[in-house]
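User: Could you write out the 3D structure of this protein bound to beta-D-ribofuranose? I've included everything you need below.
Assistant: Certainly. Input first, then the structure.
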Amino acid sequence: MVARPLIIDCDPGHDDAVALLLAVGSPHVDLRAVTTTFGNCSVEDATRNALQILTLAHATDIPVARGAEGSIDGKSTLGNYVHGASGLDGPPMPEPGFDVSPETATELLRRTIESSTEPVSIAATGPITNVAQLLLDHPAVKDGIHEIVFMGGSTERGNHTPTAEFNTFADPEALDLVLGSGLPVRMVGLNLTHQALATPAVVERMAAMDHVVGRTCAAWMGFFGASYNRVWEFAAPPVHDPCTIAGLIDPGLIAWRDAFVAVELDGRWTRGTTVVDLHQRYPDQQPNVQVAMSLDAPRYWDLVLSAIDRVGQRS
Ligand code: BDR
Ligand code: CA
């Protein structure tokens, strides 16, 4: 089996943390670099959290570079009303066992892509600012990108606002740039991730693992679940971000549909909302995105939990 080269651009975040563990624990992907962004917390906090998560996973050989402090046009929207003041509130975490890279996120992205013999996949699980900045600063890297899979948007409802999902609200101009890049793009939106619920049965399977990694995941779900219950009245939290990695590892876990996708930049109430044309209502617009539609949730959790267990067993 040839492992697919992967970069994760993230804002950890409880569900970003599980996405990192899924990538580290999966033999199907080769996690070459992690870049961080503002989003669930400040970029400083997101960077420390990424270093701590990879330390917990004994994956301190994966370079981590700090990225955008705010959106392409300089705004900083934070989601710490969901993830707590640190961005990863809940169980204690180990001190970072390694240093952040001296490179910027865009430099690490560029160097990792250019030095790979295989085209690299990028999973973006926060505001997509770093990826847009990469395409602006180094357009030639496009040749080395296999595809961009992003968590964000929805075919239906929002969460940060009634219609806009948090990541797409936080930097719609960046997403607009990525959608217009001509690169293969896949969207994993709330319509999909709301099928990836960490039910009590899932959390029990995490807690029952005989290692700190499993128990930490269970405690993360406790904090994240309480936020989802308080803000959106969910009985169990949707674990969004690992769906991007799961879709790379096993595309058959998810049913995909080609569609034209745009993001609203100007709406008075709808800024950051994705417009997903599932029924060709804009006949002049060609499909530009593969949109995730439905998830095989039992298979998803088997994949995620076995990766977490693999990471925990070797830690
Ligand atoms: C997205 O926003 C954050 O809360 C999560 O990490 C996820 O990436 C869901 O809207
Ligand atoms: Ca995220």
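The domain at 4-314 is CATH 3.90.245.10 (Inosine-uridine Nucleoside N-ribohydrolase; Chain A).
User: Perfect, thank you.
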